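Review this chain:
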Amino acid sequence: MEYKLHRIAPNSEGWVRPSRGRLSQKGVGSFVHEHGFGHEDWNFNIDFAIDGQVLGYTVALPAKKYEGQRFGLVLATFDAGGWRAAGYYDGAILLDKPAAPSASAVEQMAVDVFELAKINQVAHRYMNQTLTQIENSIRSDFVYFRWAVPKDRIVVFRESLPIPPNIFEPGRQRMVTSYNLSEEQFRAITKLERVLFNPVHILRL
């Protein structure tokens, strides 16, 4: 299995729906900056599973030679405070062609964007659209998803967790969106929540 860390946009809703306050903000990625939401905003929404599989989105993608292979994929944000792990996919498959969420998932995405539009938290073009129009806009703007992962192999942390520099510190390359990880690094990041929230178990890891 291959191991990667991919940068995603910050989100205060656990990446199950878009969060407010990101329209025109710096450090959130160009699409989120322009639209107020991003495709990765639903990366941990297991209610969108199709036949037990969740589709995930990241800006970066591994090389074509890795299509069909399994990955341990850490999803993380970066800001002035450093790298923070949002969660991870432990056994995601890189699809060989783009996939689209189910019709019901797209409907819920439109509802989520519609709610943000009501409080002026998305791009102006969504403000006066009906729910159906927003759904059509989302479909027309889709950047299709290329990760498929069993919903029981998805872990989202209760809050994003700082990644210690001794585990992962890419230095000046921090603006890159994709990084190789060793299996050791990946496993260390997956254990962060237990270390930070259950210190009694540190010696048992």
User: Anything to note?
Assistant: Confidence is low (pLDDT under 50) at residues 198-205. Helices lie at 30-35, 103-118, 124-127, 131-141, 183-190, 192-197. The longest strand covers residues 82-99. Strands lie at 2-7, 53-56, 70-79, 82-99, 145-150, 154-162, 178-180.
